[in-house]
Amino acid sequence: MQIQCCVCRKIREGGAWAAPTGEQGDEAVSHGYCPICAAEAFAEMRGRLHHKPPPERIQPHAATRPRS
Ligand SMILES: [Zn+2]
Q1: Which residues surround ligand 1, an ion (CB under 5 A)?
Q2: Which of 25, 51, 52, 63 would suit a FRET pair with 44, their CA atoms being 20 to 30 Å apart?
Q3: Residues 6 or more apart in contact with residue 66 via CB below 8 angstroms
């Protein structure tokens, strides 16, 4: 099974990540994150945790949720 990065579309080949050749054949592809995109996604998640949006940016439907 191949693993393809769902962000930059690179495909893991052995221990390396390479750009897709356009021919993936019938081999099953599992989507994940390459190390670079995983680091960026993780940093983004941390950033969101530490930088909550101001109240006015919260979606209307989210404002109807009961306060915890
Ligand atoms: Zn990637």
Answers
A1: 5, 7-8, 34, 37
A2: 63
A3: none
